[in-house]
Amino acid sequence: MKQMTLIEMDGFLKGKCIPRDLKVNETNAEYLVRKFAEAEAKISALSEDHQKAIESIKQADSAVKLAHEKFSAMAAENAGMKSFGDKLNEMHNDLNGEGTGIQGRAEVACQQVALEAAMEEFDAIKTPATDAFLAEVKTEARKEGAYFVANRMLAAWEAGFIDDTAKNAADIARMILTSTEFMANAPEGDFDRSFSDGVLEDIAEQLRKGVIQ
């Protein structure tokens, strides 16, 4: 129903006109109560949508701030490393060649020792923000790899290339997908394929010997 004009409302209240959506045997009072209830429901829904929009904006703002903090920390670390690296290059370029005589060779030796000490300091620089970001990226990439494996395995089973029961196929897929929950804290050795290669070699050997089928 479109919004009533003042004249239409006056005519409705005086019984001179009837709204199109007036129900059979519905009194004017019942009609108004129903329309007010519908309006309140719409207002409530709009209020909820508005609140959800505000929450979404807050979450997005928090995510942007967190990302800004991470990248700012990484930028500061990288700027520090670049500055230190530039100084090392300057020190290297300032070395006096091979030197001449005992004094020249002694100067070169001292400069070389200083440069090696500086290189050790450079190697000892900590970059926690950069390391954390790279670890996060690596973990997400590994998770996507697990999703890929589960998808390929189930697709192969559905196509009939894997001869096994539906329960076993589902159990294996769930095991692969569940593994993503432990990836962040798993040791690097768990991501090396050498273990799988070793087990596959053992299985192949047992198949050749007829121990298993």
Write out key terms for the chains shown.
213 residues, mainly alpha, 0% strand, flat, Eae-like protein
Structure in words:
The protein has helices spanning about 5-15, 30-95, 100-125, 130-160, 165-180, 195-210. It is mainly α and about 210 residues long. It folds into 2 domains: about 5-75; about 130-210, no CATH class. The radius of gyration is 37 Å and the shape is flat. The model has no long low-confidence stretch (mean pLDDT about 80). It comes from Salmonella enterica I. This is Eae-like protein.
Q: What is the helix content?
A: over 70%
| Structural Rg | 37 Å
Q: Report the end-to-end length measured between terminal Cα atoms.
A: 74 Å
Shape: flat
Average pLDDT number:
79
What fraction strand?
Answer: under 5%
Distinct helical segment count: 6
Number of domains: 2
Query: What is the quaternary state of this protein?
Result: single chain
Low-confidence stretches: none
Main β sheet profile: none
Please provide the count of β strands.
0
What structural class results from the helix and strand content? mainly alpha
Name the helix and strand elements from N-terminus to C-terminus, one letter apiece: HHHHHH
Protein name: Eae-like protein
Q: Would you kindly provide a brief summary of this structure?
A:
It comes from Salmonella enterica I. With 213 residues, the protein is mostly helical.
Summarize the topology.
Layout: H1 6-13, H2 28-93, H3 101-123, H4 128-158, H5 166-178, H6 194-209
Helix pairs in contact: 2-3, 2-4, 4-5
